[in-house]
Amino acid sequence: MARRSDHSRDEIREMALAAAERLINAQGYKGLSARKVATEIGYTVGTLYLVFKNQEEFILHINSRTLDELYQAMETTISTQQVPGDCIKALCRTYYDYAAAHSKRWLLIFEHALPDKDALPDWYQQRITRGFEMLEQVLEPIVATHNQQQVGKAARVLWGSVHGITMLAVTRKLDVVGVDSVYELIDSLVENYLAGLTR
Amino acid sequence: MARRSDHSRDEIREMALAAAERLINAQGYKGLSARKVATEIGYTVGTLYLVFKNQEEFILHINSRTLDELYQAMETTISTQQVPGDCIKALCRTYYDYAAAHSKRWLLIFEHALPDKDALPDWYQQRITRGFEMLEQVLEPIVATHNQQQVGKAARVLWGSVHGITMLAVTRKLDVVGVDSVYELIDSLVENYLAGLTR
DNA sequence: CTAATTATTGAACAATGTTCAATTGCATGC
DNA sequence: GCATGCAATTGAACATTGTTCAATAATTAG
Q1: Residue closest to sugar C1' of C6 by CA
Q2: Rounded to two decimals, what is the model's pTM?
Q3: DSSP string of B102-157?
Q4: A26 and chain B: CB distance < 8 Å anywhere?
Q5: Residue A153's closest CA among A179, A135, A141?
Q6: Closest residue by C-alpha to C1' distance, nucleotide D24
Q7: Does residue A11 reach within 7 angstroms of strand C, measured from its CB?
Q8: CB contact, 8 Å: B162 with chain A?
């Protein structure tokens, strides 16, 4: 059976990740299983453990790709916006838009809480910090002070807040309906928080 | 063997929930299993399925108790605060304090995303809406307008935001250390958002 | 004291993650 | 062209999970 389809390790990884994303989009986290992924790509379970250490590492890679997609969407938003004031609002909406459009995969990033002890691998941690840096860049020209500490704080507050509103909206805990309602909440947050900051 | 220990259904439920909370506190979501809970309370798996429909309903009840505890902490905060302005800040800190102190159980509320189709049972949904109502009451005297829509919107923005900051802080994605740093973020949010609202 | 009832069990099933000896297909050396 | 070695792939096996339900044991009723 060996080398039957003659895929490189990287090709198998790619196929497995793509199949996993399809499964998650269709049925959420519970729809994911080693055997299902293996069947989807025409291999068996054993092969998966040849290219991924275990399920945890596998999911980490899925999440990594999701984060990459998300940040790409955000970078597109940044590059198409000119006025710094509008840019932040647009960026926050993009965050929600992406989460809403790919909710199952986006939720997986946060559903999968890791054990306290072992820290996340560096390559993954960097994908998280990247979000801050992006926001900090956009905030820099807006926030009154150029104090880097203040900018960093504002970025964390804004990111956390938009994340929270998005999370509750996606899991339908906000008791609101329609995209516009969520936009209203995000806009209210950004407008008023920034107004307070620059007052 | 039957009736060996002579506990009523409600007593068994209570014991099972208490045991589950202990297990979750100790080892998180993954530490929870029907057999472990059963062993802990001196019964077998079958008995659990006599008092709970399935794992989903079981977890719903665990979460329900967590929410009750959280809201009780928030009500204590409200009742000990006099100045409305300070009250909101204190309330938000309480939300974070509770989440940080009981992180495993608090996380379980959100890790466990439900399937799209079937809505949450009413008794559970009410425990979610209760949070808004609490915040709305506290916001009412502060927000300039008495427009109920505006108050509701502000409550949702604030709750979502504090939730997001708390979530990222608890899962150590905020890249900050220490309780005070998180307090700073929450205070920044509340102060500036409210300043913007009442400008 | 027997019979009916009811609480409780635990064996059984399907599905999960994970491992690893066995197997199969390919390339190389002769 | 054939045998040998290597590496890719398998799939059976194990432990653990949620869930079910006939069998059983303890209690109550008659």
Answers
A1: B2
A2: 0.92
A3: THHHHHHHHHSPPPSSSPPPHHHHHHHHHHHHHHHHHHTTTSS---HHHHHHHHHH
A4: no
A5: A135
A6: B1
A7: no
A8: yes
Q: Average pLDDT of B47-65?
A: 96
A45 touches strand C (CB under 7 A): yes
CB atoms within 10 A of CB A19: 19
Is the C-beta of residue B56 closer than 7 Å to nucleic acid chain D? yes
More confident residue, A91 or B117: A91
Q: Which two tokens stand for residue A19?
A: 């199949």
- Mean pLDDT computed over every residue of chain B: 91
Residues 6+ apart with CB under 8 A from B35: B45
CB contact under 8 A, A161 and B160: yes
DSSP string, A160-174: HHHHHHHHHHHTT-S
Protein-covered nucleotides of chain C (CB closer than 7 Å) are: 6-12, 15-21, 23-26
- Position B119 scores a pLDDT of 77
Question: B135 at the A interface (CB within 8 A)?
Answer: no
Q: Tell whether the model's pLDDT for residue B74 goes beyond 90.
A: yes
* Interatomic CA distance for residues B72 and B88, integer angstroms: 15
pLDDT at A175 over 70: yes
**More confident site: B199 or B89:** B89
